[in-house]
């Protein structure tokens, strides 16, 4: 008997909660869609470019920190009149200085050879990220591969857009 | 005299540029200002229709530019208001018939004799838009609370900001439907203003009277009872520098207001 009442109660409450949550009016939908599309219009940043930038940022940053690559977020946001690129990086652990130095040496040694292979590995990486859920078992292998690629691709000039995303700010 | 040249533009078509032009021009003229309107929508002219002047056009802006007549000969005087006149667009030519320089020269010439030169801009952002903007130093961006119109207005604002000669631009929100805003089915005035972050110069309610006034070729500002007409009159007063509060559309269009208006109308008739 108690169960029946409890179930009934939950259903009633659930019904009201649901209608509350669903109540995003068409005006709100329009406003939010418009905000996003205007941000893209104003900055000329297409979703493809954003994705490319996100990937390159991951490459760069994973030189210094271990992070949850899937959870890294890069979004365009509006603050008053200004557009801002917001980057949120879930850091797992910072790398040791010796580790970074070792990786850099590796890179220098191999950079001459891998120049041509770079483009190919880039494409592979895209695939592996998209399908990573489906291929969890082979993940550990992929990861070590990834790390090598990051070293090869990482940019360390400190001036270009990859390294300094705030340069992209504009209205 | 050095008149003000104001271009009325929108990006998107069909949001009410020409209607706005006809009404603001008429309202300014009714307030005693000398006003000339230039239709720069070559090939798709319509401002003459809204003013009911389509049968009086002898020369167009292209005739002026190509030297077939003097500028003053091409100005068509309004039927009612001697302060108001129109420089019509050519219907048989395209946007390349007039250049930016030529439009600039025409505006400079008209500035000497008129208080306001209102330039009706064609839709789009191509040469026609560039021409229309060339002679102006102020702009009114017309938009409606719809996504496509707001997006295009944003683009236009970007282009206006890039042009040094445009010293200021204002937003005019047209075809506002207070009951749709109330039911959250239309973006509110505040939403649009916030998204575009531009100064507002007018809020015009959707009004079926616009259709009948276009049918008759008589701008709605001549109709004292019309709410849209009142709103356009207020825009004209703001252009002249008066500080006029925005109409409270929700109140004006509510059922009670209509009932009140109905009764006050009856009382008026009995007198």
Properties at a glance:
heterodimer, A: 171 residues, alpha+beta, 2 domains, two-stranded antiparallel sheet, 6 helices, 4 strands, flat, disordered C terminus, B: 271 residues, alpha/beta, Rossmann fold, eight-stranded mixed β-sheet, 13 helices, 8 strands
Mean pLDDT of chain B: 92
Task: Please summarize the sheet with the most strands of chain A.
Answer: 2 strands, antiparallel
In DSSP terms (H or I, runs of 4 or more residues), the helix count of chain B works out at: 13
Assign an overall shape of chain A.
Answer: flat
The stretches of 5 or more residues of chain A where confidence is low (pLDDT under 50) are 121-171
Output the CATH topology of chain B.
Rossmann fold
**Fraction of residues in helix of chain B:** 40-55%
Which H/E pattern describes the elements of chain A? HHHEEEEHHH
Percentage of β-strand residues of chain A: 5-15%
Descriptive notes:
- The complex is a heterodimer of chains A (171) and B (271).
- Chain A is an alpha+beta fold and 171 residues long.
- Helix content of chain A is 59%, strand content 12%.
- Chain A has two domains: 1-43; 45-168, no CATH class.
- Chain A contains six helices and four strands; from the N terminus they run H-H-H-E-E-E-E-H-H-H.
- In chain A, helix 3 packs across helix 6 and helix 5 packs across helix 6.
- Chain B is α/β, with parallel strands linked by helices and 271 residues long.
- Helices cover 43% and strands 16% of the residues of chain B.
- An eight-stranded mixed β-sheet of chain B has the order 3-4-2-5-1-6-7-8, with helices on both faces.
- Chain B is globular, with a radius of gyration of 18 Å.
- Classes of the chains: A alpha+beta (171), B alpha/beta (271).
- Chain A binds chain B through residues 25-28, 30-31, 33-35, 37-38, 41-42, 80-81, and chain B through 146-147, 150-151, 154-155, 158, 181, 183-188, 191, 195, 197.
